[in-house]
Amino acid sequence: MVVYNFSAGPAVLPQEVLKKAQAEFLNYAGSGMSVMELSHRAPEFDHIIKEAESLLRELMGIPDNYKVLFLQGGASTQFSMIPLNLALGKKAYYHVAGSWGKKAYTEAVLLSKTLPFEPILLASSEDSNFDRVPSFDSSAIDPQAAYVHLTTNNTIEGTAIYEMPETNGVPIVADMSSNILAAQYRVEDFGLIYAGAQKNIGPAGVTIVIIREDLINTMPALSSMLDYKVQVDNVSLYNTPPTFGIYMSKLVFEHVKSLGGVAKMAELNRHKSGLLYDYIDASAFYQNPVKNPEDRSVANIPFTTSSAHLDKLFCQEAEAAGFKNIKGHRSVGGMRASLYNAFPLEGVEALLNFMKEFEEAHSGD
C-alpha cells in the first residue's frame, strides 16, 4: 500500500533528500563519521552551515543587509525572542488571523507584565473562528512602533497572506513557518522573518531567522541564548546548534534549487492545491471553511463533509487506505490536507479519487 503523509508538521520530506542522507549517514564526505557525530567546529560542518546559508540566500533572494540564523527552540521561542530584542520601550502590533498568531500575541502580553513594552492587538478574526484574514487601517499604527507581527500562513485554519499590507512604515515581522519556500515573498518587505523547519525545510529542531541588520539589538537581552546580537556575532554557533537538522536543511535547499527554485515550487503548489479546491468548490458534499477564496492557503487545506459523523468515518477510511494524518485540527474539525513542497502531485490525485468514491458511497447519508 502506498502511504501519503498529510501531516501538518513534522511533515513529508523529499524522497531524494532522504535517500541522500541515508547514503551519507555513516560516513559524511569521507570523514568516517556521521553528520550527527561531527563537531560543530569541524571543517566539515563549517562547510555545511555556510553552504546552507548561501543556498537559502540564493533561493529567497536575501539581500546582504540581512543576517541569517539557524537557531533552536522552534518558532514558538521567537514569540518571546522578538519582543525581548526589538520592542523594549516601544509599541508592538499583532495581526491575529489564526491560532499561532494568537499564541504570539498572548506571549507578548505575558512578557509585557514584567518588561517595558506595549503589545497591541491590531486586528483579529477569532470571533469567526479565524475563517478569514482580518483587515486593518494602517493609519492606526504608530509609526514609531517596533514592528507589526503577522503570520503568512495559518496552518490550522487554512488561510494565508500573499500581499503584504501597508503598515505606516513600521517593519513587518513574519512567522513564515508553514509556507517559506512554498510561496514567493520579497525579503525586503520584511524586517524579520522566522520559520520552524519542520514543514518545508527539514526535520523539527531548526528555526530559521532572517533579520535586517538595523533591527539587531544593541543592548543585551535578558538571556544570551535569546539575544539576536549574540547569535549573529557567533554566526549561529554560540552553543552547539542542531547539526543534523541544518545538514538536512541544506539538502532540501539543494533539492529545491534543482527543481527550479521558489518560483517553481510556488507554481507546483498552486497547481496541487487548485486541484483540491476546484473539486471541493464543485461538490455539494464537501466544504472549505475559509470565507474568502483569495485568503486560501496553498499549503494547508481544511475541509469537511456534510456531518461530523461522516467526517469521522472519512478519517477512519482514509487512514486505512494509506492517507495518513489527514484528520483536521481539533479546533476546526473535519479533515486537513497539508500539501507542502515535498508532497507529491500523485498524492493529491489519489486523494481526489478517494474523495469521489467516499462521496458516491455516502452522499445520501
From TrEMBL:
Cofactor descriptive note: Binds 1 pyridoxal phosphate per subunit.
Reactions catalysed, as given in the entry: O-phospho-L-serine + 2-oxoglutarate = 3-phosphooxypyruvate + L-glutamate; 4-(phosphooxy)-L-threonine + 2-oxoglutarate = (R)-3-hydroxy-2-oxo-4-phosphooxybutanoate + L-glutamate
Record PTM N6-(pyridoxal phosphate)lysine, positions in chain: K199
Record-level Gene Ontology MF annotations: O-phospho-L-serine:2-oxoglutarate aminotransferase activity; pyridoxal phosphate binding
Family to which this protein belongs: Belongs to the class-V pyridoxal-phosphate-dependent aminotransferase family. SerC subfamily.
Function: Catalyzes the reversible conversion of 3-phosphohydroxypyruvate to phosphoserine and of 3-hydroxy-2-oxo-4-phosphonooxybutanoate to phosphohydroxythreonine.
UniProt-listed NCBIfam families: PRK05355.1, serC_1
Protein name: Phosphoserine aminotransferase
Protein encoded by which gene: serC
